[in-house]
């Protein structure tokens, strides 16, 4: 009865601990750039990249960003976009638009998007022509092979159910 125990029951009237340091747009953009580097290096797949990017975009505290990188090695720190001071005194600083996110191409052939779509679209037409010329059905096997070589196993960026859900969230 003389010694106090090390564990003290938590009082429900105490406020919850602070979640950490708040972050801004620059930190979120920096985290998203680091995720792009990990995706480009092949450490995370496209679904994991998309999931973590959405979490980084919604993060409000530094600890939320740190959780995204616990299983990834450190990368070279991306340069944060410069903050432009507003001409109006007392106005918050204006951050420049980072522009569209560039996702590395996934196909073996590394063909840029306008040409990749054209090649994949023309392949079935060529397969049909070659089928009638040579009288062998094996030309139809070229269609999925070309699609895999151009877009890779994950398919074309911006298609599929995940992309549709992302577009709905953006509306």
Automatic annotation (TrEMBL):
Chain spans, region Disordered: 1-22
Coiled coil: 44-71
Family matches, as InterPro entries: DUF1707_SHOCT-like (IPR012551)
Sorted UniProt keywords: Coiled coil
Originating species: Kineosporia mesophila
Domain (DUF1707): residue spans on this chain: 21-73
Protein name per its UniProtKB record: DUF1707 domain-containing protein
Tree of life domain: Bacteria
